[in-house]
Design brief:
With about 350 residues, the chain is of the alpha/beta class. The protein folds into two domains: about 60 residues, Phospho-2-dehydro-3-deoxyheptonate aldolase, domain 1 (Alpha-Beta Plaits, 2-Layer Sandwich), CATH 3.30.70.1140; about 260 residues, Aldolase class I (TIM Barrel). Helices cover about 35% and strands about 20% of the residues. It is built from eleven helices and 15 strands. The strands form three sheets. The chain has an eight-stranded parallel β-barrel, surrounded by seven helices. Strands 2-3-1-4 form a four-stranded antiparallel β-sheet. It binds phosphoenolpyruvate and manganese (II) ion (MN). Manganese (II) ion (MN) binds next to loops. The site of phosphoenolpyruvate (PEP) has 10 residues, from loops.
Length: about 350
């Protein structure tokens, strides 16, 4: 259920409603909107008694939420969520009119390699650096990432180039460290339904980039996001990264139609990853253009200074020169849509 406060409701009135909700043993999630605050209620197994809440001061109405996801849905918050990511060079915004570009290598391999990528993507205009320190690899014999040493390299790159850091946590232990060192916690496709990890991410105080599982429906992606919001972290970005289909001309099939579908169902920003979405570097720039044209709130792109020698995902990593072209093109496309790339 959702308690919609009157536009002129005071903070004390919002607090009193939250306290009443919590006195029933439920959890209150006050989410301020452009014109009014809505309070989502979670934890209720049975219908809540509408009457008692509706009579409280400042309450406009109580409405049952028809969707299984309560906090991520547009019913809860009609306007787009804009996520703010603080970086040493100022805030980066994602959602609404803001299109964010995250770029960098698949994995942190060495300090030199990470710095080479950071320098080039920053020069091309990206303000968020990606790079995995913990790599969920299909084979246990493949490069698994540098772990904590990798996070330290990323933190150094952050200070040197003024970029925000986006990196993946693969379990609760790595999430503790990623939360400490990075600016955005990435939850990968393979962990989209790792519910204990999602709950831990929900208790984190940093934004989360949640990737769609390779065979997950939109509802499953939204329910996974709901796990994070239900624990109190409302700063979640969704990410389409391709799904498994019978097509074999690409590694995955990038499902761009999920972008407007997700935006209709949810107020959360949705990014697109054309690198994992295609698995082929020749296709990344074209699909980046398409993603921005379809309305994506951001891109996450694998860029390596020497893609043929990358320790992971070299086939889908583009060189810095190509990334520069990509940035120029997507900025033009965003402008047509009255959006800005940052
Ligand atoms: C990655 O971003 O490098 C990654 C492993 O992505 P995904 O979880 O989408 O496969
Ligand atoms: Mn990768």
């Amino acid at each position: 259920m959702l308690v919609v406060m009157q536009a002129n409701a005071t903070e004390e009135q919002v607090r009193a409603v939250c306290e009443r909700i919590e006195s029933f043993g439920l959890r209150a999630h006050p989410i301020p909107g452009a014109v009014r605050t809505a309070i989502g209620i979670t934890g209720n197994k049975d219908a809540v008694d509408l009457g008692t809440l509706e009579s409280l001061a400042g309450v406009a109405e109580c409405i049952p939420v028809s969707k299984p996801y309560k906090l991520v849905g547009r019913e809860m918050k009609p306007e787009d969520t804009v996520i703010t990511i603080p970086t040493p060079a100022g805030d980066v915004k994602v959602g609404g009119v803001h299109v964010a570009v995250i770029a960098g290598p698949c994995a942190v391999e060495t300090r030199e390699q990470t710095f080479a990528a950071a320098e080039r993507v920053r020069a091309a205009g990206a303000r968020l650096l990606r790079g995995g320190a913990y790599k969920p690899r299909t084979s246990p014999y493949s490069f698994q990432g540098l772990g904590l040493d990798g996070l330290k390299i990323l933190a150094e790159a952050r200070e040197t180039y003024g970029v925000g850091i986006v990196t993946e946590a693969v379990d609760n232990d790595s999430l503790d460290l990623v939360e400490e060192y990075a600016d955005v916690i990435q939850i990968g496709a393979r962990n989209m339904q790792n519910f204990s990890l999602l709950k831990r991410a929900g208790r984190a105080r940093k934004p989360v980039l949640l990737k769609r599982g390779m065979s997950a429906t939109l509802d499953e992606l939204l329910m996974a996001a709901e796990y994070i919001l239900s624990e109190g972290n409302y700063q979640v970005m969704l990410c389409e990264r391709g799904v498994r289909t019978f097509s074999d001309h690409t590694r995955n099939t990038l499902d761009l139609s999920v972008v407007p579908a997700a935006q209709r169902a949810s107020h959360l920003p949705i990014l697109v990853d054309p690198s994992h979405g295609t698995g082929r570097r020749q296709k990344v720039r074209a699909l980046s253009r398409a993603a921005v044209a379809v309305g994506a709130d951001g891109l996450i792109i694998e860029v390596h200074h020497d893609p043929d020698r990358a320790l992971s995902d070299g086939m889908q990593s583009i060189a810095p020169e190509e990334f520069q072209l990509l940035m120029t093109e997507v900025k033009e496309i965003a402008r047509v849509l009255d959006r800005t790339v940052n």
